[in-house]
Amino acid sequence: MIKQHILVTVDNVIFTVIQDRLEVLLVKRDIEPFKNQWSIPWWFVLETEDCEVAAYRELREKTNVKDVYLEQLYTFSDVKRDSRGRVITVAYMALVTRENIVINAWSYTSEAKFFPVNSLPKLGFDHKKIIEYAIQRLQWKMEYTNVSQYILPNKFTLSELQKVYEIVLNKTFDVRNFRKKIDSLHIIKPTGEKEIGVQYRPAKLYKFINKKIDIVEIL
Fold it and tell me: How far apart, in whole angstroms, are the C-alpha atoms of residue 30 and residue 110?
């Protein structure tokens, strides 16, 4: 009988939009390997749970977010990806609204914070590759689903909606054409409310009609 000692982790690439930038949550490790370097939040899968359960569990415990989008990305299994031994990671992409996040302490880390995806520090393991993979997946999902709702606040303006698409896709859209396209998809509806506490003419607030992820031709 073949004896193996293989460890399995889940790595969560947690995206949000902060100050008109797509950002990802990183943690600074206080243990080897890659001590004092940044990495994606990670944890080992318990013997009593599957990978998705582990990803959800730790995401809730570490960010205090329940209404979250989580999608499995890929399994990274390079034999030499971890110097401690054979470690396979199942990576997930999570989308959260920044206003709902409360970052709690991680074991084996000294700090946790968001970084702009185009200005990342040096990362441990193969985490740069994982983040790049996740960015590409997010861009694809934004093009043909209503997944943007998990980055936006529950109530938002049309300008905020357009800005999220422009930030993630790194494109600029004509305001009139974008709003015409969104209106034709019937995925949002007005709340009957307007912005408050602004010094300009307050804009109408909208919300998504369906929390379920639907296939829609955004682009």
Answer: 6
Name residue 3's amino acid: K
The domain defined by 7-121 carries CATH number 3.30.70.660: no
Cβ count within 10 A of residue 15: 23
How are the residues of the chain apportioned to helix, strand and coil, as percentages rounded to the nearest 5? 30, 30, 40
- Orientation of helix 127-144 relative to helix 158-169, angle to 10°: 130
Residue reference for tokens 């209404």:
67
6-22: average pLDDT: 91
Measure CA of the first residue to CA of the last residue in the chain; give whole Å: 53
**What is the reported pLDDT for 9?**
87
130 CB burial (10 A radius; 0-12, 13-18, 19+):
buried
pLDDT tens digits for range 110-169: 888 999 999 999 998 899 999 999 999 999 999 999 999 999 999 999 999 999 999 999
- CATH fold label, 147-208: Arc Repressor Mutant, subunit A (1.10.10)
Q: Is the pLDDT of residue 175 over 80?
A: yes
The rounded distance, in Å, linking the Cα atoms of 99 and 155 is 12
Q: Where are the domains of the chain?
A: 7-121, 147-208
* Distance of alpha carbon 141 from alpha carbon 129, whole angstroms: 19
Full-model pTM? 0.91
